[in-house]
């Protein structure tokens, strides 16, 4: 079952932004900020944002690969492995 997100009204955020930041950093979970009873924004820790962005990049690459396979475009396995070796050597 998905976890219910933490929610904070914008008025509470205005009153104690430091506590909200501390909560986001400690839990590593998003904090939904509401305005007039509706979700208006989401606050994330930098670590959570970077992790999510990294996952999005991987998903984009996978989706691009699937499109290329469907269009009969592609690369030889040896080319792919050689490129992977070059990328790993650079890190």
Task: Tell me the fraction of residues in β-strands, as a range.
Answer: 15-25%
H/E element order:
EHHEEHH
N→C terminal distance: 38 Å
Category by helix and strand content: alpha+beta
Extended strand count:
3
Low-confidence stretches: none
Radius of gyration: 20 Å
- Specify the number of helices: 4
Please summarize the sheet with the most strands. 3 strands, mixed
| Count of all domains | 2
Helical fraction equals 55-70%
- Can you give the mean pLDDT? 89
Strand order of the largest sheet: 1-2-3
Give the CA-based shape: elongated
Compact summary:
This protein has helices spanning 10-15, 17-27, 46-70, 77-90; strands at 6-9, 31-35, 38-43. By secondary structure, the chain is of the alpha+beta class. A three-stranded mixed beta sheet has the order 1-2-3.
Explain this structure:
- The protein has 4 helices and 3 strands.
- A 3-stranded mixed β-sheet has the order 1-2-3.
- The two termini are 38 Å apart.
- The protein is α+β, with helices and mostly antiparallel strands and 91 residues long.
- It folds into 2 domains: 6-44, YefM-like fold, CATH 3.40.1620; 47-90.
- A hairpin with a 2-residue loop joins strand 2 (31-35) and strand 3.
- It is elongated, with a radius of gyration of 20 Å.
């Amino acid at each position: 079952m998905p976890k219910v997100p933490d929610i904070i009204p914008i008025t509470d955020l205005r009153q104690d932004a430091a506590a909200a930041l501390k909560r986001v950093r400690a839990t590593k979970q998003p904090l939904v900020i509401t305005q007039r009873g509706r979700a208006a924004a989401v606050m994330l820790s930098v670590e959570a944002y970077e992790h999510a962005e990294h996952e999005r990049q991987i998903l984009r690459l996978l989706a691009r690969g699937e499109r290329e396979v469907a269009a009969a475009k592609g690369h030889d396995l040896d080319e792919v492995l050689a490129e992977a070796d070059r990328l790993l050597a650079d890190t």
